[in-house]
Design goal:
Structural class: mainly alpha
Largest sheet: none
Keywords: DNA-binding
Radius of gyration: 11 Å
Number of domains: 1
Distance between the termini: 15 Å
Helix content: 55-70%
Order of helices and strands: HHHHH
CATH topology: 434 Repressor (Amino-terminal Domain)
Shape: globular
Pfam families: HTH_3
CATH superfamily: lambda repressor-like DNA-binding domains
Domain HTH cro/C1-type: 15-69
Number of helices: 5
InterPro entries: Cro/C1-type_HTH, Lambda_DNA-bd_dom_sf, TransReg_Diox_bact_type
Protein name: Transcriptional regulator XRE family
Number of strands: 0
Amino acid sequence: MKKQVDFLQALGQRIRTTREKQGVSLNKFAYENDFTKSGLSKIETGQSDPRATTIKKIAAGLNISFSELVRDI
């Protein structure tokens, strides 16, 4: 369970960092990629365990590949 929590927190941090580097707010990213702000926030804080399809959708919204998003996590 600890490894899963660590992975979810690392993934969330990677998503947030990438989004912020692109200068996109949480609100704007959520709206443009058909997420709720609260749902995306839970993913970014590691409080949610997203499906692989959701991670792929987030990666596409960030204009990076799925593998790039999860690499070395």
